[in-house]
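Hi team,

As requested, here is the filled-out complex form for the 4-fluoro-L-phenylalanine run. I kept the field names the same as last time so the parser does not choke. Let me know if anything looks off before we queue the next batch.

— J.
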Amino acid sequence: MERGNFGSKIGAIMAAAGSAVGLGNIWRFPTECGSNGGAAFILIYLLCVFFLAMPVMVAEFVIGRSSRANAVGSYRVLAPGKPWVVSGFMGVLAGFLVLSYYSVVAGWTLDYTVESLTGTLLDKNDFAGFFGQFVASPWRPVIFLTIFLLLTHFVVAIGVEKGIERYSKIMMPILLLIIVVLAVFSMFMPNAIEGIKFLLTPDFSKVTKDVVLSAMGQAFFSLSVGMGTLATYASYFNKETRLVSSAVGVCTIDTLVAISAGFIIFPAVFSVGVSADSGPGLVFITLPYVFQEAFGSVPVLEYVFSGLFYILLLLAALTSSISMHEISTAYIHETFHLSRSRAATIVTAVCLTLGIVCSLSFGVWRHVTVAGMTFFDLFDFITAKFLMPLGGLLICTFVGWDMNKKLVASQLDSRFTPLLMILFSWVAPIGIGVIFVYGLISS
Ligand code: PFF
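And here is what came back:
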């Protein structure tokens, strides 16, 4: 079967960075950081990124490019008849689940984009009240969730180079620029210093096993690793793409964006007096205050900046949602010999159904819980704290222990190969395993 390809090296890196940078950095990172104590969480997060999640990323690149197949098919090519394929199936399942609840938050972002551009968002003065009412309403968030999923569907159905690559290359740099500008503004808000302290002064007494599991889950989520997304993308990489330096580049960009997002959100959180652990609404409640404070004296600027920010956040969410959609679409398309667009339609339909369930869990179904969690929280928990770390553990172990050593070395083509082999075989599997087991026991 004819497979798509990224047209250029930089396009491939931008697409991987596009998958990594998204709501995970700007919405989930501050939420997790706020609920888990701030600076100490960030330190543990950084360790998890560079010692656990980055090796998984490189391992996914190796699997994808050497097999040139989807998340499940890659194990059928590289290790026929062996049980590693389970990790591929877990990835496809995670793809469905993450995309479903991710689209809910992306739908909120779409609503905020429209409200910014039409001038109705920043007219309000109680953003917490507005947000609470909005997410609890049965229709509006569902409509925006549907539009977002259709946008994702449209790009995936067009294909790899024209769809995914072209969008990522333009949007990523603009997003980075605007984030830095907003962080600077936020740090000059009244009382912002408290937020900066929260981000920079670690309080290790707050570190529990669950905090460490949360930090690891956030690292995996933010870098899109552990579920075969980046293996699927790497199956479209060309021979010239350098796997190790690309992974280092993607991890660095992703981490810088997450930390900068922290520097936008927390100074503002302390400045406007919102509680740092107020959960998924944090970003949607504090950011509008930043826009008001920074540009309030020139209303036009206020609308332009907030509109631009939410559009970019939406586009960042789109480059991530496309990659989640792609795991399942590529799998269905290549395994069941359905056309790309038919495979994409199945994925969209399933995710829309699950997404509606997640959206309603903020309103009419907020009392329906499983193990004490609403559907939205449950999907987040199962993926970030369970399927992704476990998938990452299997991926590293496979590349470190079972895959043909020569093939791995030729894919890596790096002077750091011996070091990477230690990370794949020992550091990452043991580290992930220990945090996973202890974290789950304590939660
Ligand atoms: N890394 C994305 C973000 O930070 O928003 C989320 C994500 C994308 C998770 C793709 C998993 C995935 F496969």
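Two things worth flagging: The chain has a mean pLDDT of 92. The pocket of 4-fluoro-L-phenylalanine is lined by residues 19-20, 22-25, 98, 221-222, 224, 227, 229, 320, 323-324 (CB under 6 Å).

Thanks,
J.
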